[in-house]
Amino acid sequence: MKNIRELNANDLNAVNEIYNQAVASKISTAHTEPVSMEERMAWFREHDPDQYPVYVWEENGMVAGWICFSPYRKGRQALRSTAEISYYVHRDYHRCGIGSALLEYAIERAPALKFKSLIAILLEPNIASIGLLGKYGFEKWGDMPALAEINGREFNHQYYGLHIG
After folding, report:
1. How many domains does the chain have?
2. 156: confidence class by pLDDT, cuts 50, 70, 90
């Protein structure tokens, strides 16, 4: 897809801005405080593009969204063919199909990365993400009741999964 490419270091400010928009939403991540650029740089170093790539959607020269693969239960060899998938879209580009395009792209690339299963972990009020995952065949595999607390409100932490092929 012409708008999707691999992340590079020049994208990190935009990626962090998009992520911190999700933090501010109070339903799109379990972080409750903005992520610093130092934390984002460490995250970037942990995402080996050959094993756990990050892809961005570029729109008119700016990063409008991103998706990444991350280890699920890092260091547990029996889970090496499972990856956690995370995605975020800039608030100005919500409902433009970017999340769908990124998720479809990642699912298509998962087998080449030797992933047999994808896990998305989210908070229960994130109905937009739940709908997007359902559109691509993800099913709810787990519900951890009242595990997350944000601003005095408790939310279920939910696991959605997809077996590839």
Report:
1. 1
2. very high
Identify the bridge partners of residue 165 per DSSP, sorted by sequence position: none
Closest CA to 94 of 29, 25, 46: 25
- CA-closest candidate to residue 101, choices 113, 91, 87: 87
pTM of the model: 0.95
- Give CA–CA dist 137/25, Å, rounded: 26
By the 8 A CB rule, do 27 and 126 touch?
yes
| Residue 128, domain extent | 4-163
Written as one string, the DSSP assignment of 63-114 is EEEEEEEEESSTT-GGGTTEEEEEEEE-GGGTTSSHHHHHHHHHHHHTGGGT
